[in-house]
């Protein structure tokens, strides 16, 4: 009985314990359930509704979606609700899940902070909150979770620094904090985490150096610190403890120094990414010992040297990227033996050599190959067709030649093909347009010729970008391009396409960019309007439209206003467009750049321009626009560039232009504006260029002119501005070019000009200025052009600073200027009362003059005795001798070393020219006439007669002469840079496009003086490049007047014997001997063609019927690149368009000079005006870009 009672009592006790445990268990499950219900209530968006359907009291908690429980305690141990698209916040109740070991809430949209109650999850081993919207600092309470092994908080919005307390989580194996906004240094205490395998802190704002302690974590397998601002060098012994490291990603930081040569000691490395840093030195050869390496990123550093040939030892390598790193040498052939390579990027280095034919033999999986922007040469091997896995193939910006191999059509997986800016030629293989996978083709900047296939885009359904510009393609633009219905960008500019712009382009509904500039495209002959505009109205995504520099010769239709509302740029310049600008242009609300310059537009500027709120640049330069400038333009608050020059715009200059604070460039020259300059205009403090020249503006210059502190160009010449120049002009500290010429200014030249230290060009000519030239201007060290001619100035011309370089032309026609004789002004008087600062200079001048007189007297006595002894009659012509007195034959003989061939500069029809070094080391040119030749003596007399009175900066200056019965010579200013012919046609000389233009302006200026600037017109009769000599500053001077003619009263004279040079002779001069100024114009036109084509009219190719003029006319204006000097035009250069237009305009002017009939030829003043206009247009383009 007692035994039975004992067992019963024991059973009851155990039963009671079990009941208590069950009760406790039920209580804890309820706590877990309550925590999850709290979480559910904090979720504001549940797109898939799993919680609404499943998380309910009718379902056991352990069966809820994302919940896992322990079998022993029936408590929640894992909560995995990742990738569910949930929005909401984390409630503090989640801290009650006391058995939780695994928490994954990643890839949702949770926001707010992580509640501190989560610090109670002491059993937690894995916490993943990646890809949410959490904010605030990373909680320091994570250090309380002593069992935590994996902590991932990447891709949130955490700020602040990385808590050093994280180092207390000693069991941590993975710490991922990337893609946040963390800043500050990496705590060195991180190095205490000796179990850490993965450390990822990339894409933050961390600074400072990488703590050395991190390099001591021997367990580390992956270190990712990319996209921060970390600096410093990598330690030399960085790999001592990194035997297990597999990934080292340090790209996009500010690390410098050399890549440690011990990098190979990280022997387990599979990924090495050091790109986008400032590493220097060469690639360590030891890198080739990383036999496990699969990915190598070294691009965008400051490396040097070659790609190591041992790189071929990296047999596991899949990706090789060394772009933009300054590497030189050749591409090692061993690279093409790495069979696993699918990606090669060597773009933007200085690599050279050619591609091997075997490049595809061992690269079966190559998909990406980019060697663009290097210096590779040779042909593209046809074996490239064996790289059948290629997806992206980039060879642009190299020096590849030959044709594109047809085998490239075997690349059926090709997505992008870039062969731009090479020297490839021939026809584009039609098979190229059969690769249906292609999305991008760029062949621009080569020498491809022929026409495009009529069915060009029938097999290119995926094509998005097609660039064929800057080639020699011809024929019609195929309408079938419209079959590439996904096309967004189409570039066909700078070719020789003819016909009209296809209306089928309107089918390209995704088109954003269309460029057909510089072709020979015309409007449809049946209509006057440019009908293609109508079709382009269907291209609703069009953003840029480039159609200029074509002979469109049509009228802008009103439908231009129906173009895409997204249209930002229209370039339709130099295209013969007529009629008025439609009012509908105001509908293009996104338009930012509108270029219609160089056309034949008439009518007024539409007031609807005022609706183009986003307009930044408006260029109507060189049209026939009339009427006033509408005040509606003042609504364009973003306008930065306004060019209305060379139109017929009248009336007043709107004062409200001064309200457009964004204006940087204003060009209104060559119009009929007739108001004062509004004071408000001077409030544009950011204005850089202001050109109001050649108008009828009046009034005075206000004090506010000094507000334009950043202006670099101001031209108000050729107006009717009166009054004084305000001293506040010095406020324009940045001014480089300043012209107030041809106005009615009076008073003194302000001393304050001397404070404008950036000045390079100052023109105050043709005014009524008086007083002295201020000495303060001597401080303008950059001044290269200075003109105060045709004023009423007096006093001594300054001699310091830049003034030693200016010629008499700077000071012509003033009242009482004095100074050096070379300036052709009277010498200053020796006495200068009240000029104490000049006394020392005066004493020096007087002393020097006395000494010179004594020496001159002594030399005269010796010379007289010498002549008496030799009894040889010598006479010196009465030509002026500015720097040399009388010069004898013996002086010339001595100065030329006996007229040695070593000093021979050139030989002409009647004379030879020698370099002579006179006593005192001055150098002159001596032109010795061969009196044995018939006409030589007459040639000498002609030059003496003509040059006796002529004075111009672009004529060769005669110094003196030497003449007797047996010897005649002219002593001329020495031109150290030889002749224009030498610079054009010798292999070791080159003139750029502006130098050629400036030299031809020099020649035209000389002709203008000869034809119109002297009392009797002078005809040179033998104008050619060899008669244009260049001085130290590369300024051109016309020489050799041996057969020149003075016309007298008559405009034309008959010449019985033609002595001019074949190739340059005007037809009437050669056939009839008729001489007029129009003969020089004809010769000048031939010179223009020669200067820019680098072809002589006497070249062998012109021996038959073909003449230089005819040859150029065949290619103008549609094929300028065929006749222009190749050295002037490089398709890849920035200013190619402007240069092409310049040469085209030059050739057009040359044709006007070379008209068959003299009456049809342009006169020299119009030539000079046209040249200056061409130069101005080119300069505007350069300044704009």
UniProtKB/TrEMBL annotation:
The regions listed as transmembrane in this protein's record are 842-864
Q: Does the keyword Transit peptide apply?
A: no
Enzyme category, top tier: transferase
List the catalytic activities from the record. Answer: L-seryl-[protein] + ATP = O-phospho-L-seryl-[protein] + ADP + H(+); L-threonyl-[protein] + ATP = O-phospho-L-threonyl-[protein] + ADP + H(+)
Q: Where is the Protein kinase domain?
A: 899-1182
Q: Which UniProt keywords apply?
A: ATP-binding, Cell membrane, Glycoprotein, Kinase, Leucine-rich repeat, Membrane, Nucleotide-binding, Phosphoprotein, Receptor, Repeat, Serine/threonine-protein kinase, Signal, Transferase, Transmembrane, Transmembrane helix
Biological process GO terms, please? defense response; response to other organism
Q: Does the keyword Transmembrane helix apply?
A: yes
An example Gene Ontology CC term for this record: plasma membrane
The residues forming the signal peptide are 1-23
What does the record give as EC number? 2.7.11.1
Q: How is this protein positioned relative to the membrane?
A: Single-pass membrane protein
Q: Where in the cell is it found?
A: Cell membrane
Q: Which domain of life is it from?
A: Eukaryota
GO MF term (any one): ATP binding
Entry binding sites for ATP: 927
Q: Which family does it belong to?
A: Belongs to the protein kinase superfamily. Ser/Thr protein kinase family.
- This protein's name: non-specific serine/threonine protein kinase
Q: Which organism is it from?
A: Abeliophyllum distichum
Q: What is the lineage of its organism?
A: Eukaryota, Viridiplantae, Streptophyta, Embryophyta, Tracheophyta
């Amino acid at each position: 009985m007692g035994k039975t009672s004992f067992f019963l009592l024991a059973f009851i006790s155990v039963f009671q314990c079990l009941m208590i445990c069950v009760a406790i268990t039920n209580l804890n499950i309820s706590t877990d359930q309550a925590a999850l219900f709290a979480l559910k209530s904090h979720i504001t968006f549940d797109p898939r509704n799993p919680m609404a359907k499943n998380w309910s009291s009718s379902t056991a908690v352990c069966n809820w979606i994302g919940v896992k429980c322990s079998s022993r305690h029936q408590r929640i141990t894992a909560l995995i609700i990742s990738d569910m698209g949930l929005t909401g916040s984390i409630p503090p109740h989640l801290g009650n899940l006391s058995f939780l070991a695994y928490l994954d809430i990643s890839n949702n949209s949770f926001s707010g902070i992580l509640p501190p109650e989560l610090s109670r999850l002491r059993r937690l081993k894995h916490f993943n909150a990646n890809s949410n919207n959490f904010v605030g600092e990373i909680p320091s309470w994570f250090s309380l979770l002593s069992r935590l092994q994996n902590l991932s908080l990447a891709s949130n919005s955490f700020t602040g620094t990385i808590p050093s307390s994280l180092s207390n989580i000693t069991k941590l194996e993975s710490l991922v904090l990337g893609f946040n906004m963390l800043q500050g240094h990496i705590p060195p205490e991180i190095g205490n985490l000796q179990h850490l395998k993965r450390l990822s802190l990339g894409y933050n704002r961390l600074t400072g150096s990488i703590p050395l302690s991190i390099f001591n974590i021997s367990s580390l397998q992956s270190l990712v610190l990319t996209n921060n601002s970390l600096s410093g060098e990598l330690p030399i012994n960085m790999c001592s403890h990194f035997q297990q490291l597999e990934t080292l990603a340090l790209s996009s930081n500010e690390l410098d120094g050399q890549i440690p040569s011990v990098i190979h000691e990280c022997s387990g490395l599979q990924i090495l990414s050091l790109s986008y840093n400032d590493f220097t030195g060469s690639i360590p050869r030891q890198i080739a010992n990383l036999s496990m390496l699969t990915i190598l990123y070294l691009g965008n550093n400051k490396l040097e040297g070659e790609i190591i040939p041992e790189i071929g030892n990296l047999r596991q390598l899949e990706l090789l990227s060394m772009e933009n790193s300054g590497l030189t040498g050749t591409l090692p052939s061993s690279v093409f033996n790495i069979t696993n390579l699918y990606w090669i990027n060597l773009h933007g280095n200085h690599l050279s050599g050619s591609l091997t034919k075997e490049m595809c033999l061992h690269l079966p999986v190559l998909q990406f190959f980019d060697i663009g922007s290097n210096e590779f040469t040779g042909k593209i091997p046809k074996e490239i067709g064996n790289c059948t896995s290629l997806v992206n193939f980039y060879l642009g910006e190299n020096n590849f030649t030959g044709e594109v191999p047809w085998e490239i059509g075997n690349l059926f997986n090709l997505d992008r093909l870039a062969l731009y800016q090479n020297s490839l030629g021939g026809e584009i293989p039609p098979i190229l347009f059969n690769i249906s996978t292609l999305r991008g083709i760029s062949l621009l900047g080569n020498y491809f010729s022929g026409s495009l296939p009529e069915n060009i885009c029938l097999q290119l359904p995926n094509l998005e970008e097609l660039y064929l510009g800057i080639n020699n393609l011809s024929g019609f633009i195929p309408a079938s391009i419209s079959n590439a219905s996904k096309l967004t960008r189409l570039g066909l500019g700078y070719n020789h396409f003819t016909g009209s712009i296809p209306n089928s382009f309107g089918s390209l509904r995704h088109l954003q960019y269309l460029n057909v500039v510089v072709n020979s495209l015309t409007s449809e002959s049946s209509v006057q309007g440019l009908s293609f505009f109508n079709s382009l109205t269907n291209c609703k995504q069009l953003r840029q439209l480039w159609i200029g520099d074509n002979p469109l010769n049509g009228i802008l239709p009103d439908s231009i206003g129906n173009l895409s509302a997204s249209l930002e740029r229209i370039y339709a310049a130099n295209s013969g467009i007529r009629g008025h600008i439609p009012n509908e242009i105001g509908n293009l609300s996104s338009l930012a750049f509108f270029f219609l310059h160089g056309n034949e537009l008439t009518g007024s500027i539409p007031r609807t321009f005022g609706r183009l709120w986003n307009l930044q640049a408006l260029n109507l330069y060189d049209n026939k626009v009339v009427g006033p400038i509408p005040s509606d333009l003042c609504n364009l608050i973003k306008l930065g560039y306004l060019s209305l020059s060379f139109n017929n715009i009248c009336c007043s200059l709107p004062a409200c232009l001064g309200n457009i604070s964004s204006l940087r460039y204003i060009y209104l020259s060559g119009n009929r504006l007739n108001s004062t300059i509004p004071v408000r205009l001077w409030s544009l403090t950011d204005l850089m260029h202001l050109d109001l020249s050649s108008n009828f503006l009046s009034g005075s210059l206000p004090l506010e002119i000094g507000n334009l502190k950043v202006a670099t160009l101001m031209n108000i010449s050729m107006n009717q501005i009166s009054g004084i120049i305000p001293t506040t002009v010095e406020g324009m500290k940045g001014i480089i070019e300043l012209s107030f010429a041809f106005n009615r200014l009076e008073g003194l030249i302000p001393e304050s000009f001397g404070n404008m230290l950036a000045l390079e060009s100052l023109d105050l000519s043709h005014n009524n200025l008086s007083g002295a030239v201020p000495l303060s201007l001597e401080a303008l060290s950059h001044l290269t052009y200075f003109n105060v001619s045709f004023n009423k100035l007096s006093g001594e011309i300054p001699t310091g600073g830049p003034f030693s370089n200016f010629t008499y032309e700077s000071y012509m026609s003033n009242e009482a200027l004095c100074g050096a004789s070379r300036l052709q002004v009277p010498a200053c008087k020796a006495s200068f009362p009240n000029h104490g600062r000049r006394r020392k200079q005066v004493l020096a001048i007087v002393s020097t003059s006395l000494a010179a007189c004594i020496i001159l007297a002594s030399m005269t006595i010796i010379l007289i005795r010498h002549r008496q002894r030799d009894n040889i009659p010598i006479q010196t012509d009465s030509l002026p001798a500015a720097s040399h007195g009388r010069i004898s034959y013996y002086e010339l003989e001595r100065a030329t070393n006996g007229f040695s061939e070593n000093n021979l500069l050139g030989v002409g029809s009647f004379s030879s020219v020698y370099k002579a070094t006179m006593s005192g080391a001055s150098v002159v040119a001596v032109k010795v006439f061969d009196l044995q030749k018939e006409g030589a003596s007459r040639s000498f007399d002609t030059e003496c007669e003509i040059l006796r009175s002529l004075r111009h900066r672009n004529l060769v200056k005669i110094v003196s002469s030497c003449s007797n019965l047996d010897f005649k010579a002219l002593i001329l200013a020495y031109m150290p840079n030889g002749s224009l012919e030498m610079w054009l046609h010798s292999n070791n000389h080159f003139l750029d496009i502006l130098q050629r233009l400036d030299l031809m302006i020099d020649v035209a200026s000389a002709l203008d003086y000869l034809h119109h600037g002297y009392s009797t017109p002078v005809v040179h009769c033998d104008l050619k490049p060899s008669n244009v000599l260049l001085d130290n500053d590369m300024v051109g001077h016309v020489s050799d007047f041996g057969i020149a003619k003075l016309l007298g009263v008559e405009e034309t004279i008959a010449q019985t014997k033609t002595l001019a040079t074949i190739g340059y002779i005007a037809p009437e001069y050669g056939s009839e001997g008729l001489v007029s100024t129009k003969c020089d114009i004809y010769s000048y036109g031939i010179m223009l063609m020669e200067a820019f084509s680098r072809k002589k009219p006497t070249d062998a190719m012109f021996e038959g019927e073909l003449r230089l003029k005819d040859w150029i006319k065949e290619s103008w204006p549609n094929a300028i690149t065929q006749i222009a000097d190749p050295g002037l035009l490089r398709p890849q250069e920035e200013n190619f368009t402007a240069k092409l237009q310049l040469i085209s305009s030059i050739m057009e002017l040359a044709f006007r000079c070379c008209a068959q009939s003299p009456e049809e030829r342009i006169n020299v003043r119009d030539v000079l005006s046209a040249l200056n206009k061409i130069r101005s247009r080119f300069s505007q383009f350069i300044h704009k870009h």
